[in-house]
Amino acid sequence: MAENTNIILESKEPAMGHIEVAPQVLEIIAGIAASQTEGVARMRGSLANSVTELFGRKREHGKGVKLTFDEDELSVDVYVYLNYGVSVPHVALQIQDNVKQQLLFMTELKLRDVDVHVEGVIPEKVDTGVDPNNLFDDEDNNEGDSEQ
Q1: What letter would DSSP give residue 126?
Q2: In the CATH scheme, what is the homologous superfamily, with its name and number, of domain 24-124?
Q3: Where is this region: Disordered (predicted)?
Q4: pLDDT at 47
């Protein structure tokens, strides 16, 4: 028989029953909180995630997040790629704060820790300056030709 992996939330109200949250829900909350942090380019995903996104399937918000729940304590590992030029420590601290706040706000779970793993830096896309509507326009040739 499969082990119950849901996390039970404790209620301060008189018990009307118990509340269980699937780990995938917590991964999605943490993933959205991390990806919405300014300076985060994207979350780490698997090759399968990249292929499904390429074919237009829905984006998986829980990618790049790993949960560990032991001894009634929750630890979150977040794997991110940052934009080039941002302060890595500043963005990492902001990710930790955002994930902690959102999980506390939405589930009232207290975290043992939020570990941020910066997997890489993504450079800005450079504008090549090519006009797709006028690919063969050669400005150098036009400057040399003057009407007389």
Answers
A1: P
A2: Cation efflux protein, cytoplasmic domain (3.30.70.1350)
A3: 128-148
A4: 44
